[in-house]
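request received
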Amino acid sequence: MSKAQATRSDILTRAMELIYKQGFQSTSIDDILATTQVTKGAFYYHFKNKEEMGIALIEEAMHTEIWPGIQSSLSSSSNFRDNIYKMMDKLLFKHPFMTVEHGCPAVNLIQEMAPLNEAFRLALKKSLNKWERAIEAEIIRGQETGQLARSHDAKQIALHIITLYHGVRNMGKLLGKPYYVSFLSEFRQYLDSLN
Amino acid sequence: MSKAQATRSDILTRAMELIYKQGFQSTSIDDILATTQVTKGAFYYHFKNKEEMGIALIEEAMHTEIWPGIQSSLSSSSNFRDNIYKMMDKLLFKHPFMTVEHGCPAVNLIQEMAPLNEAFRLALKKSLNKWERAIEAEIIRGQETGQLARSHDAKQIALHIITLYHGVRNMGKLLGKPYYVSFLSEFRQYLDSLN
DNA sequence: ACATAAACATACCAATTAGTATGTCGCAAA
DNA sequence: TTTGCGACATACTAATTGGTATGTTTATGT
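response:
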């Protein structure tokens, strides 16, 4: 990685941390610069403006931070229920920087920015779509291997699972980690109820 | 209502509209004043600072805006499933100022402010708790009238329903109104699956 | 070694922010 | 009628904001 690429990466990494905790609008560029070796000149060399940096954050940081954990869970065993459960468990409990109090950066950004900025909305939707199709594929795999009746709508279930994830990430901010635990057991029941 | 009370109410009403659409942190006091007849002196006469106004917003506006619709749905018929379904339908489709793109003000505030401000978190938790107990009571009513097995944990179901609401409000920002429709039909299925 | 552009660094700016200081005006009680 | 306070109104400030203008350094191909 060249020095310039490292600088760009530093900006995105630090921006991710701050935006995750404070939100996009409330994270100032000076905030990001203050805790990096990066100067304002460097920032505006790499990004046209704050918005473009936010889009880059979604497209790059999001895909490299969150996506790998999802992919490593899905298709890891032959039992599709176990895989989806493991994906949820990993997302909620095993992720290196996500905490219960601050939730999930993607969920937070959707909440904050989707109504305000169409470019954000589209980038976030694209990201969500990728996840949705991965879950959908896992469900279809379950149907093809006889674990789940073909009468189920795979896409609808996938969206339902993502909806649950969004919900629990938000509720966790009020109820704390214990709610994650009881949610997970209910989630297991939900998966088993699909027959 | 006295003139002073009307002024205070004007502030909270306009603040609610703006915070709902832009978030708490990104709504400035000048924003609120600009579209009201209220001046800065009046604002700071009624509220110590911006934070205290936010807390008042949660405790008052929230309870008077959202709560009535919930209460009128619950206990309206003898079928607890119909009542809970109606509550969800009313919240998603019938509310005077909530839109799909901006979601629900309570959900938004939890997302944004719960991790940043303990006073907000507690006020929001209290508000959520009220809702949770109302749903729980409806479920218990269902159990006592033989519509639902007593083996179910009413509180867990109530929290699950609220989690779903949070999730769908967030997902709606990406997927639009059609998702509300398909969610509602899935929600009906969920309620019927409780036996 | 040298030209040239990429990759920064510094200083600045106008607008916006939450909050304050200090005044004014009307009305109720004495 | 006067006094006093509730309910504002106006003008201001220091800090912060996103963004720009204009430099300087550093790498890189020739």
